[in-house]
Amino acid sequence: MLADHQEYDVVVTAVAPVGTAVHADGHDGFIDQAKHPSWWSDTPRAAVGDRMRAVVLDAARTPPRFSALSSDIQTARSLRHTEPLVRLCPPPGSGRTVKWAPVEEALGVALPGDYKRLVQTYGGGLFAGVLWLLEPDCPDAMYDLVAQTAEREEILAKLWEVGVDKPSELHEGNARLVPWGYAEGNGHVLYWLVRPGVEPEEWTVILNEGRGPLWEASPMSCSQFLLEVMAGTTASFYFTDLDDIVDPEERTRFVPHAQILSQ
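Given the sequence above, the corresponding structure tokens read:
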């Protein structure tokens, strides 16, 4: 069954002036002419037998509509888990409008689209009574994305210098960590594992436990990590006992930074 925002490797089965028929995962689909890269660039037009990556735009259409545009694929990746998260945990307000260019310049990396959508939808704050989402320009430096990136890099550099073992994922040259979340109470820090040549939407979430040397990698986006923790489907060792430490009414609740910091 095809689903909106899902990606597939598709094979072109027919070409017409209005678009391209494709086959994906046992299903037929269609890429409208303007949703193929050749409409916008010097990319060769589609031909029968071509294979490409495409994303489902509308699974309810007959046939389902796909797009092979990288911009649509990136957008779909940002929606894949933020939309179900919003259904599970409705945002209490209108979120935030952020100028991302100076934030990304300060960090030295482009940020994942799903993180930007989370901040724009919720702002920074506390999910499920336990998981803080860092945000740019937070008045409290402890929950500010840029400030925490600088602070955590300094802390980790000192640990590496005295011989504390790095996680194996950092043994690859030029890999770095950028924090995006923090676990209330136990101090676990959630990072993105940033590796050269890996797109932000493909970054791994990696957790450093707050009171020990262990690390845990989860090959997923931050929005998927949040969704699975709140839905009770997480495989993370550090959040499988959430029902024991969080009141049931908090489990699917988000509280903005502004509300907490004003108390």
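The chain has two domains: 7-75, 82-261. Try to locate this feature in the token string yourself.
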